[in-house]
Amino acid sequence: MGDWASTHKLWEKWASNNIGSSGEPLKAALLLNYDPTGPSRLLSVIAEQEGIKLKAVDLLPFLDFVKRKNWQMEFFSLGQNQYLVTSIHEHWFCARCVNTSKPGGEGVIVMQTGSFLLVAMYEGSLGSAPQAMVAVDHLAWQMSRRTH
Predict the structure, then answer these.
(1) Helices 129-147 and 4-18 meet at what angle, rounded to 10?
(2) Which GO terms describe its molecular function (predicted)?
(3) What is the reported pLDDT for 23?
């Protein structure tokens, strides 16, 4: 992604419309710098975050999990929550929280788009996943348009 200013602006608009408030599909999201084939970066691991406050060091085990691609055999953690992958697709996967205190449950969608990983967290049953996926897919589509 060549133009960081436009990516940041895109993120800000998307996050304000999709994260945090009641009735919005996502409770939190992270945009992580991620390119396993590229050279080491001097950039921060966390490009953007909304609705959650994590440090780069907190995400290193998660990034190792993603790189290993042994997704159906391991759990991964984001913050205090542990997740188990439930669905794998070409450029994304879904997982459910196994230690949630929320009665409706919690889930996460992880999608690679360009040199970023988009990590979107939602509350609710599996029925909430489609709404979350629409929001994630919309940002990924907008980001991919910027690179072409």
Answers:
(1) 160
(2) actin binding
(3) 75
